[in-house]
Every structure is written in C-alpha cells, then in structure tokens.
C-alpha cells in the first residue's frame, strides 16, 4: 500500500510514499480515516510471504495500523490489530470509521473457525485497541467478510459484508448495526 496525491481530480497521480515494508510482507487494501488535514490513520491487510527460495508453508495474515502526521510523506507503525485467520485462508481486509467523539472502529472477517465478523475500537487514535468484539460467529464457510461500514449521525455503525449461514448456505449480503 502506498500514498498517491492528485491535484487535478485524478488525471495525474504523484507517488508520495510507501506506507509499510513490502519486501516480505504484503500490505494491501487500506482503510483510512482522516483526523486532520495532515494526520491520517490507515489499517492494512497484511500477509507474510517467505522470500523467494525459502520454503515456508504457513502464511500469517493480520491487520496492522499506521499513522502519518505529515500528510502521508512518512508513516509510523502504531499497532497490530488482529489476526484474520490461522494462515490458511489469505486473511481479510479491514474497514474503519471514526465516530463523532473520535473513537475509531475497525471491523473485519475472521477466516478460521469459528468463522466470524469481529471488531475493535480505539479511543486514542489507534495507539491501543479494545478486546475483540464478536459481531457474529455463525458463518458456516470461511469465504466471508470484506466488511464495509459507515457511522450514522447517531454514531451507530452499519456493517455490510458477505456471509454464509445454516439458513442461507450460499454467500449473500448481510448487515449488522
């Protein structure tokens, strides 16, 4: 994942910086919230990929959080948020919103048993995070998640994701408030 800048509505893009190390760790699918014009918090879908020539069968998958205080020119690691599986299912991307009191809320699919939609909150701009909140853990297949969410004006969070249940075995869209 990296930071680009445009000053003409996307016609031209200028590379600004890499957000995280990329040699052996995949960092993709960022979810970003803006604190001020120069201060942003970004959560990344991460995976360890062994260097070429190294036999490593387990792939670790997790979510990290970074911040910039200079408009994306430099990024600092804040915290590891969560594992998103036990290395077998390629993890799941984060979704993140900021509530009116400044609380950050992050949600993601967990692709190991029990398959679940989970969340965490931070009241200090991403430095520390709450214990995992199990939104639901009744999925019957690992292929679920990809949460998207918004914060309503009353600060209730609407989470939308794809899911499987005993009642509906095919993947379908679900929502939780």
Summed up, the helix count is 0
Strand order of the largest sheet: 3-4-5-6
- How would a textbook summarize the main sheet? 4 strands, antiparallel
- Share of helix among residues? under 10%
Gross geometry: globular
Radius of gyration: 17 Å
Strand content: over 45%
**Mean pLDDT over all positions:** 92
Q: Terminal Cα separation, in Å?
A: 29 Å
Number of strands: 13
What's the short version?
The protein is an all-beta fold.
Would you give an account of this structure?
This protein is an all-beta fold and about 180 residues long. Helix content is about 0%, strand content about 50%. The protein has strands at about 1-5, 15-20, 25-35, 40-50, 60-70, 75-85, 95-100, 105-110, 115-120, 135, 145-150, 155-165, 170-175. Strands 3-4-5-6 form a four-stranded antiparallel beta sheet, with no helix packed on it. Strands 7-8-9-10 form a four-stranded antiparallel beta sheet, with no helix packed on it. A hairpin with a 5-residue loop joins strand 7 (about 95-100) and strand 8 (about 105-110). The chain starts with a strand and ends with a strand. The mean pLDDT is about 90.
List the helices and strands and how they pair.
Blueprint: E1 2-5, E2 14-18, E3 25-34, E4 40-48, E5 61-68, E6 76-83, E7 95-98, E8 104-110, E9 116-122, E10 133-136, E11 145-151, E12 157-163, E13 172-176
Antiparallel strand pairs: 1-2, 3-4, 4-5, 5-6, 7-8, 8-9, 9-10, 11-12, 12-13
């Amino acid at each position: 994942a990296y930071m680009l800048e445009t000053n003409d509505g996307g016609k031209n893009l200028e590379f600004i910086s890499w957000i995280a190390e990329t040699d052996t760790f995949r960092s993709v699918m960022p979810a970003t919230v803006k604190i001020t014009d120069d201060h942003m918090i970004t959560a990344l879908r991460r995976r360890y990929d062994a260097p070429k020539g190294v036999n490593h069968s387990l792939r670790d998958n997790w979510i990290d959080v970074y911040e910039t205080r200079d408009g994306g020119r430099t990024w600092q690691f804040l915290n590891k948020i969560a594992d998103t599986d036990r290395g077998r299912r390629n993890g799941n991307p984060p979704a993140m919103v900021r509530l009116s009191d400044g609380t950050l809320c992050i949600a993601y699919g967990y692709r190991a048993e029990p398959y679940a939609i989970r969340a965490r909150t931070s009241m200090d701009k991403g430095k520390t995070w709450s214990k995992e909140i199990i939104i639901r853990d009744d999925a019957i297949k690992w292929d679920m998640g990809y949460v998207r969410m918004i914060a309503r004006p009353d600060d209730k969070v609407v989470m939308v994701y794809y899911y499987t249940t005993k009642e509906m075995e095919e993947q379908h869209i679900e929502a939780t408030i």
